[in-house]
Design goal:
Layout: H1 15-35, H2 40-44, H3 54-74, H4 80-91, H5 93-99, H6 105-123, H7 128-131, E1 134-136, E2 142-144, H8 145-171
Antiparallel strand pairs: 1-2
């Protein structure tokens, strides 16, 4: 936390991976500030029948990060068993509204922390060259793993805006 505003080297990680993790850590820091002290009712609050709850968005972050761990480190899609766990959070929408509710903030924070700890462990096993490996990605266009992991925290930043809006309405 002393270096939250620095994109810098992190012991145990190569330089570019350190920088990527620095950015991911800052994104998570601001997310945690946005959800601090929310109640179950506030985490489950829906703006309307088509919106996602804050709780669902938090679990979505964990699900996306887990899915990218599997895709980039294991070179596979999620299994049927993993989709049973993470599918509602990945898909959000109707499935998420039905399945993701009634959990306190610690439930979501624990899922986020579990997945992030696995990310740290996985990134400790690779170097900067790993980030630049290219694979077919969206619309069958090439992307490197650096971009894929940028997308993990870019998605979090994007949805954090939703969380801030929902929070304002839920506390109103």
């Amino acid at each position: 936390m002393d270096k939250i505003y620095l994109i810098t080297d992190i012991p145990g990680y190569s330089p570019q991976i350190s920088h990527l993790l620095s950015m991911m850590n800052y994104a998570r820091h601001t997310t945690l500030a946005a959800v601090k002290d929310l109640t179950i009712d506030q985490l489950d609050y829906l703006l309307d029948s088509e919106s996602n709850s804050i709780g669902a968005l938090l679990l979505h972050y964990a699900a996306v990060e887990y899915a990218y761990q599997v895709a980039t480190f294991e070179g596979r899609d999620l299994s049927e068993e993993e989709l049973m766990i993470w599918g509602p959070a990945l898909n959000l929408g109707d499935e998420g509204r039905v399945m993701i509710k009634g959990n306190d903030l610690n439930y979501y924070l624990d899922r986020l922390n579990e997945v992030r700890e696995r990310t740290y462990a996985l990134f400790a096993t690779v170097d900067d060259d790993w980030l630049y490996v290219e694979e077919a990605f969206w619309y069958n266009k090439p992307a490197n793993r650096y971009f894929m992991w940028f997308h993990v925290f870019e998605d979090e930043i994007n949805h954090r805006g939703q969380i801030r809006l929902i929070r304002k309405r839920a506390l109103a």
